[in-house]
Amino acid sequence: MYDLASKCSVLLAKDFVHNAFTVILNEETRNSRSLYVEMNQTVISIYPRLKTSKMYNLSFMEENCQVLDKSLENSTMNSRQGTNKIEISDQKGVSVSCDFQYDLCTVTLAGWHHGISAGLFGTNDNEAGNEWMVPNGSFTDNVQEFTQSWQVNKCSLVPKKEKPCPITAKQNICKVFFEEPHSLLR
């Protein structure tokens, strides 16, 4: 157990063999966090502090980003949302559950995923000696190095002082699509 010192989005767990699932902890505005869960071409963004979630299917997205609200009836993923809890699972043994009341999320993997995942949650192979593996396959015992190695966006703990460029209309649209905390395309 360790404190996550990073203020950046980090990869918690990913299936690097079959690409069956990805779980990312995203930093949002005002020290809020969201959980990005991808499995079976479906993405769920969970916002524990807001007690909400958003779901969309990647296979329905077109190049012009116009189609986002298609039905998920044919999805091979199950989701249940109660008053204070959301659970997401698939037929391959991946399950993500968030309890909004306690701000607690769990990721459970079936034996089929033994030893094929990596991230801040470790290697999932019951070997204590390789839990602190970084993406290049080497190991570290430094929490900050371990955390920074699994960052998924270009982010640093020290803000850079750069002269801002003028924002064009197209850049503004891209910013709304890809950088706003509640954008489906983030």
From TrEMBL:
Domain VWFD: 1-166
InterPro entries, alphabetized: VWF_type-D
Pfam families associated with the record: VWD (PF00094)
PROSITE patterns found in the cross-reference section: VWFD (PS51233)
PANTHER family tied to this protein: AGAP008810-PA (PTHR37860), VITELLOGENIN DOMAIN-CONTAINING PROTEIN (PTHR37860:SF2)
UniProt protein name: APLP protein
Gene name, Swiss-Prot/TrEMBL: Aplp_2
